[in-house]
Amino acid sequence: MRLFKENPKNPGVIIFQNSSIIGMISRETFFETTGKRYGVELFLGKPIKAMLNSFSVTPLILPESTRISMAIHEALKRDSHTVYDPIIVQKFTGEFRIIDILSLFVAENQILLTLHNQYVDTRLSGLPLTNEEAIKRFLKFTGIRQLQEPRVLINSFAVICDHCGSSVNYTIADIVRSHPQLSMGVEIIEKMGSRSYVLYVRHKCGQEIREIPVYHDNELQLRSLRPSRLVETYV
User: Fold this and answer.
1) CA torsion 21→27→28→31, rounded to 10°?
2) Which of 70, 68, 64, 71 is nearest to 93 (CA)?
3) 186: left (phi over 0), alpha (psi -120 to 50) or beta
4) What would the pLDDT profile of 172-201 be if each residue is shown by its tens digit?
5) What is the pTM of this model?
6) How far apart are CA 152 and CA 172, in angstroms?
7) Which domains does the chain show, CATH number per domain?
């Protein structure tokens, strides 16, 4: 009781007998047991093993190399009255530690959030192409051979998203990278002997990925834009 009161974050204690683990008493189980009528008197003055024997629960012991997802999987396989008990972790050095199941859930959530953000970033950035490689791919797709101002290929443009109101910067290379199938990101319009282009600028818009159709003239100069459209909701 003193150990638990001195360290409110302590999830439990491991019980050893001759250097071998014979059980574990969680913080919740201890206070639930001693909180009952005559609970303190029942165990007062007796060895800790007496309390342990009243539970008859085999603790879950996992090596420290166990993946977090697998640890949660094993923990949830336990009986309903012990499913949220702490887990004993055996270190490579042979030492044992206790980890709260809530800590595992928090860690798993952080992993999933990281994977989610990586997925969103991948959907936005797309192909791992250098600017030079992306521009070459764009020129090959459009068949452009000559521009009055070639620097337009590396210029940065800016448009305002009509949905979230944020400013979105993009380059020709960004358009190519974010559309592995380039025909989905670049539309060529031929009309009365003149050519123009619609570039679909992809960006993170709140909890969505949206595309802004942007018109460029035959010299790839920015002229106008259409309302944005939803590509994917990622939450």
Assistant:
1) 110
2) 64
3) beta
4) 999 999 998 999 999 999 988 899 999 999
5) 0.59
6) 8
7) 2-110 (3.10.580.10), 127-233 (no CATH)
